[in-house]
Design brief:
The protein is α/β, with parallel strands linked by helices. It is built from 9 helices and 6 strands. Strand 3, helix 4 and strand 4 form a beta-alpha-beta unit. Helix 1 packs across helix 2, helix 2 packs parallel to helix 3 and helix 3 runs parallel beside helix 4. The two termini are 28 Å apart. The structure holds farnesyl diphosphate. Farnesyl diphosphate binds next to helix 1, helix 2, strand 2 and helix 3.
Length: 248
């Protein structure tokens, strides 16, 4: 679909979905994982080339240990059950965050899935794991400084295209649309720099219930909007956006 290549999602509301039904929180996460499969299918049907899902934040380590280990177990389960499907559909898996700090079992499954899908070019499933935007900026600044010290980078020539190569999302276009479910209207340290020009869609629906039609509604809302990238409404209809101006 022209204009919509990348959708990023903050999948929120699993806990409240479960509480409303008198179920343990983990049941909400379990339903959340099965919804990931459904949304993957819809995104593919709509030919959206990149889907980014916020699965575990750097702040999520503060949750009760039982919930963290259940979430890690679900991630392993998801990777084990879906790698074959990703290969079949030619979807490349990518991870953003600090996966090296995840439990070994998750890392192993991740590694296998990343390897199995690494050559696919058309579709990308990007999973944010142990991710935080501020951590990403710190990691990027550290890597850039190291390159400066080695004489491989010049701070006098630092511009956005160069700096963005040090972000976890290197090579991936910015999200066109950011969806957050569950009625919360925050970005919560997710892709803060990459969402500089993204359209936002906040849905009141809890993630386990955010199905095909909800996703399509979000996409349709995106297509009704006019993206101005700093220009006036009249200019946008008259001339294409100057990419260079956005990259200063
Ligand atoms: C937010 O709900 C959800 C999470 C912190 C975890 C999201 C993870 C998954 C859906 C599963 C793993 C993902 C993949 C890609 C397999 P919450 O617990 O904050 O809900 P609440 O705000 O209602 O308590």
């Amino acid at each position: 679909m022209p204009g919509l290549q990348h959708v990023a999602i903050i999948m929120d509301g699993n806990g409240r979905w479960a509480r409303q039904r008198g179920l343990p929180r983990i049941e909400g996460h379990r339903r959340g994982v099965s919804n990931v499969r459904e949304i993957l299918k819809v995104a593919r049907d709509l030919k959206i080339r990149t889907l980014t899902l916020f699965a575990f934040s750097v702040e999520n380590w503060q949750r009760p240990p039982e919930e963290i280990s259940s979430l890690m177990g679900l991630l392993e389960f998801f990777l084990e059950r879906n790698t074959r499907e990703l290969v079949k559909n030619k979807v490349r898996l990518r991870v953003i965050g600090r996966p090296e700090e995840l439990p070994e079992g998750v890392q192993k499954k991740l590694h296998a899935a990343l390897e199995a899908t690494k050559d696919f070019k058309d579709y990308v499933l990007q999973v944010a794991l142990n991710y935080g935007s501020r951590t990403e900026v710190l990691d990027a600044v550290r890597a850039f400084s190291e390159d400066v010290a080695k004489g491989k980078a010049d701070p006098n020539h630092l511009d956005w295209p160069l700096f963005s190569r040090y972000l976890y999302t290197d090579g991936i276009p910015d999200p066109d649309l950011l969806i957050r479910t569950s009625g919360e209207t925050r970005i919560s340290n997710f892709l803060l720099l990459q969402c500089a020009y993204s359209e936002m869609f906040f849905s009141p629906v809890f993630w386990p219930d955010f199905g095909r039609q909800h996703f399509i509604d979000a996409v349709e809302s995106f297509h009704r909007r006019q993206r101005r990238f700093g220009k006036t409404g009249e200019q946008v209809t008259e001339a294409p956006t100057d990419e260079a101006a956005l990259n200063r």
